[in-house]
Amino acid sequence: MITRHWRRRHNLYKLVGSRCRSCGRVFYPYSQRCIYCGSREVEQARLEGDARLVSYSIVYSVSDEAKYEAPVILGMVDIGGVKVIAELTDVSPGEVEAGMSLEPVLRRVTVNGESGLIYYAVKFRPRLGGSGSGGD
Amino acid sequence: MVGIIGVGMTRINRHYGKGLRELALEAASSAVEDAGVNGVDFIVVASSLSYKQVGQLDLAGHLASYLGYRGSRGIAVESGEASGLAGLMVAYGLLASGVADKVLLVGVDKLTEYNSGETYSHLEGLYDVEGDGFYNIGHAGIAGILMRLYMNEYGVDRLTMANWPALMHANAKVNPYAMLRFAITPEKAASAMPLADPITLMDSYPIGDGAAALVLARGDSGDVEVSRVESSTGYPSPAHRDDPLFIESLRDAVARIGLSREDLEKIDVMEIHDSFTITAYMILETLGLSDKGRAPRDVAEGRYNGGGAPVLNPSGGLKARGHPIGATGVYQLAELTLQLRGEFPGVRVDGAKRGLAISLNGFGSSSYVALLTAR
Questions:
Q1: What is the pLDDT of residues A82-115, one digit of tens each?
Q2: CB burial class (10 A; 0-12, 13-18, 19+) of residue B258?
């Protein structure tokens, strides 16, 4: 499974998405064709800007690979107007609240039991100094 | 013209003693006996999770001999949770084009070969494995996000959301092919063990194996006609949509089949893809049968079990009849066929003339719709 994660390292480590030069939409993850209009005129775009939690789930029924991570806090995050699905970190289930301000941070996602490989990706944590609904 | 001349189903369950072969044979034998035919030109096999759990490739080729049809033409179709209706689309195309005169469509799947943690890992494959599925989403994480979004957006409380599973269990209780044949109250559904909060065990489909089969024929034989089958592909993630709760691929598939909202309201019976409680409400509101934010209350008020709107999931739906992933669409078609023949052995919709099956993968990476009509 290493190749899939290695291929996607820029997406996963730096939140690199796509900007369509034809229709103007920005989306995640990167795709060579625009998922909205089909255009080939797509450039890489790093997602930046304020991040806000749109909705979330506390996931208990996880795969065996993630059993030591459970419960996983999975969020839909709006970052600069682009929605992404990603895990939350540095927060307990009782503290999570829709609307809270977040910031991206690189964290471990899973450890492959057979190979011992550790997979990393961007997760979101409450924005330091400005957590809580609506930010500071 | 394409008709359904025979149907067969096995009860959905944790069939530890039966493999793909035994399950497929049971359903196919019933369908062939019901149809009263000897040979078929083609077998089309719809399956999905079995490719991860059992690992058998060229499923049609390998099953044909065990079903007694070695030498027939065979093809396997995989479209995740929508595989069953994707199989119908292939069968319909073969018949309508005159390539085949009789097709045996078998939906068969196994979900219980591993422990649940491994099965959840397999089910993550229904989502974009290089997108949302890179994270630990489980089988219900995306559904949990969408359910909370819906509750917050429309101010619907947890107990009101639970009207759907309560109705599904009431229907499944009298369906001999259903996996979960017991009633539950909304209170019990809302307070069950959390899987992906706010989703509980009772908002989710159960993990079970099953097989269902149809014999389809070109021409005007059979009591039930496949009027149309249509589909559309959609975004890889609900996060890509402006409104994550609106399933644009379903809207597009319904538009392609040529059904307006008024037409949909006149359908007698529907079997819809209620993989989770939230999926059912998203489908009803995407179709326009319920106004946005109203579906849970419409269900509670009895609109969808004899209250004027189409009767929904008299089988008990994915929630309680069960959801053997790649086979589910064929169950929906078999159930609707029996409804239109007036022979469904559970909650029956008297005098039903038109039935609609709706099947999605995930939250609409693919959507399929099939319209069946009594002849």
A1: 999 999 999 999 999 999 999 999 988 877 767 7
A2: exposed
Distances (CA, A) of A113 to A119, B51, B121, B128, B186: 11, 22, 13, 22, 40
CA atoms of A122 and B46, how far apart (whole Å): 37
Q: Indicate whether A86 and A114 sit together in one domain.
A: yes
Nearest to A54 among B120, B135, B149 (CB): B149
The domain tally of chain A equals: 2
CA of A1 vs chain B CAs: smallest distance (Å): 11
Sequence-distant (≥ 6) Cβ neighbours of residue B323 within 8 angstroms? B12, B81, B205, B206, B208, B275
Answer whether B135 sits within 8 Å of A121, measured CB to CB.
Answer: yes
Q: Do A109 and B134 meet the contact criterion of CB atoms below 8 Å apart?
A: yes
Same domain, A124 and A59: yes
Contact B152 A98 (CB under 8 A): yes
ipTM for the complex shown? 0.95
Residues B34-76 have pLDDT tens digits of 999 989 999 999 999 999 999 999 999 999 999 999 999 999 9
Q: Do A57 and B148 touch (CB under 8 A)?
A: yes
Interchain CB distance below 8 Å, A63 and B136: yes
Size of interface A-B (CB pairs under 8 A): 124
Among A31, A87, A25, A107, smallest CA distance to B141 is for A87
- One domain, residues A116 and A52: yes
**Whether residue A87 sits in one domain with residue A31:** no
A118 lies in a domain? Answer: yes
A2 shares contact with chain B (CB less than 8 Å): no
B247-300 tens-digit pLDDT: 999 999 999 999 999 999 999 999 999 999 999 999 999 999 999 999 999 999
Cross-chain residue pair B117–A58, CB shorter than 8 Å: no
- Domain match, A60 and A118 both: yes
Of all residues in chain A, the one with the smallest CA distance to B138 is: A62
- What domains lie within chain B, and their CATH numbers? 2-114+208-218 (3.40.47.10)
Residue B226 near residue B88 (C-beta atoms within 8 A): yes
Domain ranges, residue A101: 48-128
CB B337 within 8 A of CB B224: yes
Q: Which residue of A has its CA nearest to B148?
A: A55
Asked if A94 and A113 sit in the same domain, the reply is yes
CB contact under 8 A, A35 and B240: yes
Q: What are phi and psi of B347, to 5 degrees?
A: -65, 120
Q: Report the percent of chain A where pLDDT is more than 70.
A: 88
Tell whether the torsion through CA atoms of B61, B63, B66 and B72 is positive or negative: negative
Closest Cβ opposite residue A8 in set B130, B135, B237: B130
Torsion angle, alpha carbons of A47, A52, A56, A59, to 10? 60
- State whether A59 and B144 contact (CB < 8 Å): yes
Q: Find chain B residues with C-beta within 8 A of A52's C-beta.
A: none
